[in-house]
Amino acid sequence: MGREIRIGSAIFNADQGHLADAVTQLDRAGIDLFHWDIFDGYFVPGLAQSPRLMRAVRHLTDKPFEVHLCVMDVKRFLPQLAEGQADLVFVPAETSDLLYECVETVRQCGMSPGVSLSVGTPLSKIEPVLPFVDSVLVLGRFNGEAVGKTFYLPQAIEKVGVLSQMLQRKGLAVSVEAAGSLSVETARQAIEAGADTVVFGGTLHRAQVALDQRLAELRAALG
Fold first, then answer.
1. Domains in the chain, please, with CATH?
2. 192 CB contacts (<8 Å, ≥6 apart)?
3. 0.85 surpassed by pTM
4. Contact 125, 93 (CB under 8 A)
5. How many other C-beta atoms are found inside a 10 Å radius of the C-beta of residue 97?
6. Interval 146-195: pLDDT, tens
7. DSSP state of 41
């Protein structure tokens, strides 16, 4: 497709009882990054992974750890994420009207700031902070929606395209990432629309083959 495309693992979908093994296998297989989901039980239902869990497996890989925060109080989590050696943190656009302040606090804590958009959130919500972030995560389903019940929605593909054009017009070198129930086909569509990073959950972790083989299959399928 003419561009270097990064593939990430949504590690929440790995076998949590053998998480260290999954991290090691994916690292050796050449995964580009690990994507961690952190829920607080308020912004979205349920709880997910923790900064302490990230820290426990950090020594197993030098690959980037990015964090998708689905929390009400972003700033409360940032010192813990810094201690957990997160590299990039996606601040949810929906959680605060003080989005710029949250983004700047991420950078002050020594991590790269990003911003995430749920499928129903307009791009106008994040446009003012685009010059101050390193990456935008375009979700293909609603925040916290149960895995396996939806697919990456068509309106998210459209949003990736509009965002990519917006960044080009503004002359901003900001990464565009797609995640949230991606299949091979919707990943290809997101890439064609302008995404440079795609994160696979069940498509990677729930295949009936070894992780290294599945990652190789995905790379080949994406060209």
1. 6-222 (3.20.20.70)
2. 1
3. yes
4. yes
5. 8
6. 444 557 889 999 999 999 999 999 999 999 999 998 999 999 999 999 99
7. S
Strand, coil or helix: 70: strand
Give CA–CA dist 19/36, Å, rounded.
12
Instruction: Report how far residue 40's alpha carbon sits from residue 80's, in angstroms, rounded to the nearest whole number.
Output: 14
Nearest to 7 by CA among 188, 158, 193, 206: 188
Provide the b/e sequence for 44-65 (b: ≥16 CB within 10 Å).
Answer: beeebbbbebbbebeebbebbb
User: What's the sign of the alpha-carbon dihedral 38, 183, 161, 199?
Assistant: positive
CA–CA separation, 198 and 135 (whole Å) = 12
CA nearest to 143, candidates 76, 50, 45? 45
Residue among 185, 194, 195, 193 at smallest CA distance from 222: 185
User: Of all residues in the chain, what percent carry a pLDDT higher than 90?
Assistant: 75
DSSP state of 199: E
Cβ 155 vs Cβ 185: under 8 Å = no
